[in-house]
Amino acid sequence: MTQTRIHAMPDGREIAYRFTPGQGPALVFLPGYMSDMAGGKATAVFEMAQATGVACLLLDYSGCGESGGDFADGSLTRWKEEILALIEALSIKGAVLIGSSMGGWLMLLAGLALGDKLKGLIGIAPAPDFTEWGIPQMDKALLADGETIYEDNPYGPEPTPTHPGFWAEGQANLLLEGEIALDCPVRLLHGQRDPDVPWDISLQLAEKLRSADVQVTLIKDGDHRLSRDSDIALLLRTVAEMILPRGTAEA
Predict the structure, then answer these.
(1) Is residue 100 annotated as part of the catalytic site, yes or no?
(2) 224 in catalytic set
């Protein structure tokens, strides 16, 4: 098992990550909201990368998992900075970003910043713009007034918070309102029984991406997490199809 390491950001943030070197492009797994690199999908991708000699990076955003910091301070821009800083620090020259749920929003924002380093995107129930479509108008009013809102969490005992700073920053980073200027291959996987992110969000995203090489796979009985053995097998096949033909490309 590759050990967890710490990357220190210029402002003192300590970001936990795991990295296995190899041929490229490197796989970079971006977890969802309040999730971390210990999840089943991230672990499966990392183990596949190790088995096939492909470079792979897992990370915990600040305030999540093994990283330092307070989750209440988290924002898309802050977490994007951490992703980009690790890619730079590890001298990754080409990356395929794999984003789960909120990580699917972050993969787009980080991808736009990576330029030619971006070699592909794989979204798992991607949730761009969820601060817009995923929050009732009444709650938006509370957030705009500086209040934190809490929702029932089907995945754990504690309610899920949305902090006003995260919400406001999300509203400043909406992407589905216009063209998303990315031209790399994109694969989107989405369960049609997803109670958290409507599957038509993936269809909207496919339409807004400038790339002509975009494919959406709908899993009729799939839920939001897509973490069953069959779902993970589909994810790994999708990853393999994107990277293995170019396995000798620049890392």
Answers:
(1) no
(2) yes
